[in-house]
Design brief:
By secondary structure, this protein is mainly alpha-helical. The chain has nine helices and no strands. InterPro entries: Hemerythrin-like (IPR012312). This is Hemerythrin domain-containing protein.
C-alpha cells in the first residue's frame, strides 16, 4: 500500500511539475508571436502566476512539514527549496506587473478594449513594448522554474516515500480544494499533454462532480486556446 501511495504521489507531482514547464515555456514562445491575441496571453500569464504561487505555497505550508516529520534529515534541503520559492516569487511579481489590460495607440496612450477575463480566444493584439516586457519577464520565470525543478525533484521524489497513503490523499484533496479558479481549462489542457489518460484520470479522481461533468467542455476550450497561443493555423 505504501509503495502504491508513493507511485501515485510521484505521478501527481511529476504531472504538476510538467504543467509548469509546459505553461512557462509556452508563454515565452507566445509572447514573441505577434498573432497571439492579448486575452489569450493574459489568461496564460495569470494562470502561471496563480498556480505557481499556489503550488509552492502548498509545498511550504503542508507538504514539507509532513516530509520533515517523517524524515528529519530532509529539513536542510527543503529549507533551501523554500528559499528558491521566495526568489521565484520575485520573478512572478515582475510577470504579474506587465500591463495587458489593453492596447496602446502609436503615441503610447492605452486604449480601451475587451476584458482580460473574457472567455474567447480573441481580443486585441499587444503593443511591441508590452510584448517585449512580457517576454522578458516570462523568460525569467521559465528559467527560474526549470532551475528550481532540477534542484527539487532529486530531493522530493525520493522523500515522497515517507508520506503515508492517508497523508498524501489528504494533501492532494487540500490542494485541489484550494486551487485558484484562474483559467482552469488550461490546467486540464496541460495535464492532458503531460500525462497519459490513465495518469490524468487518477489525478482528477477527487475533483467535485460538477467539475468532472465539465471536463469535456474544458478540454475543448483548452484545445482552442492552446492552438491560438501556439499560432496554429495563423
Amino acid at each position: 500500500m505504501q509503495a502504491e501511495s508513493h507511485a501515485q504521489a510521484l505521478t501527481e507531482t511529476r504531472l504538476a511539475h510538467e504543467t509548469h514547464r509546459l505553461a512557462t515555456g509556452l508563454l515565452v514562445d507566445a509572447a514573441g508571436r505577434t498573432t497571439v491575441p492579448r486575452q489569450a496571453l493574459a489568461r496564460l500569464r495569470d494562470f502561471i502566476v496563480a498556480n505557481l504561487r499556489h503550488h509552492h505555497e502548498t509545498e511550504d505550508a503542508w507538504l514539507w512539514p509532513l516530509v520533515v516529520a517523517a524524515a528529519p534529515d530532509t529539513k536542510g534541503a527543503l529549507d533551501e527549496l523554500s528559499e528558491e520559492h521566495d526568489r521565484l516569487d520575485s520573478a512572478l511579481d515582475r510577470l504579474a506587473a506587465v500591463d495587458l489590460t489593453g492596447t496602446e495607440e502609436p503615441g503610447g496612450e492605452p486604449t480601451g478594449g475587451e476584458s482580460v477575463s473574457g472567455e474567447g480566444t480573441g481580443g486585441e493584439s499587444v503593443s511591441g513594448d508590452r510584448r517585449h516586457a512580457l517576454r522578458e519577464a516570462a523568460v525569467a520565470v521559465r528559467d527560474s522554474v526549470r532551475d528550481h525543478l532540477t534542484h527539487e525533484e532529486p530531493v522530493l521524489f525520493p522523500a515522497l516515500r515517507h508520506i503515508t497513503p492517508t497523508q498524501w490523499e489528504e494533501f492532494a484533496q487540500r490542494v485541489i480544494a484550494s486551487t485558484p479558479p484562474v483559467a482552469g481549462h488550461l490546467m486540464i489542457g496541460f495535464l492532458d499533454e503531460a500525462g497519459t489518460p490513465a495518469e490524468v484520470e487518477s489525478m482528477l479522481v477527487h475533483m467535485p462532480a460538477p467539475a468532472k461533468a465539465a471536463l469535456p467542455a474544458l478540454r475543448g476550450q483548452a484545445a482552442a486556446e492552446l492552438r491560438a497561443l501556439r499560432g496554429d493555423g495563423s
